Amino acid sequence: MLYQLKINPVSCGKYCSASSVNRTDYDVDNERAIERLLVNKEPLSLSATEYIKQYFCIYSEPKCQSLPMADYYDFGIAKIVSKKLKEIFELACVEGEYVPIKTLDDLNNEFGEFYLAHFHAIIDCLDYEKSQFRWVERKSGRRPTSLKLLEINQSKITDNPPLFRVKYFENKVIVNEDMMAAIKNSDICGILFVPLPVNEFDSAKLIRQLEIDCAQKEK
Questions:
Q1: pTM (2 decimals)?
Q2: Where are the domains of the chain?
Q3: Which residue from 47, 192, 204, 215 has the highest number of Cβ atoms inside 10 Å of its Cβ?
C-alpha cells in the first residue's frame, strides 16, 4: 500500500505561512525561482541553497496552545520538515537533502529547527489510464496537468523506495507502509496519510471537515 503525505492541520498548535526572511520581498518571481530549484531531482547547487536561505522563511501564529508544533508543513512543492522528521527520513535512507531555514513566531522569536526538504527520487509512475487530469502542450512537449485523481502504476516502481515524488506532479510526496509506520511510531505531529488512489477534492473535503470538528471541540 502507498500513501500520499498531506498536512493534518488539526494536530498542531500553530498556523504557519511562507514568506521571505524580511517579509518584504517574497514575490511571485522568488516563489517561482524556488519552485524551479525544487522540481528537479538533481542536488541543489551552493548558490541555490543560499538563495533558499535568503528568500524562504516560515512564520507561525498561535492556534491552540495545548497542541504541539507540527513536524511537517506543505507549501506546494516546498515541504518543510522538523529536525526530528528529517532524522527519520535519513534513517530510512530517503534520497534527498535538507536546507536549514529561518523560523519566526508572532513575537519574532525563532521557534525551532526546520528544513526545506528537497526529495531527489522522482518516478514516472502515474497511471495515465486511471488517473484524472488533462493534457497540455508545452514547448518541452505534451504533459499532464490539473490532477484530480492520483493513481499510481506500481509496476513502474522498483526497489520499493520509502519515499518518492511523482513525475509531472512533483508536489505529490508518496511513502510506503514501512515509512508510514516509522513516522507514526515516532510521535510525529502534523501528517495525514491518505491511501492511494487519492481524489484531490475528497481529500481536501476531509481535511476541511477535520478543521471544522476541531474548532467545534475547542468551543
A1: 0.85
A2: 2-218
A3: 192
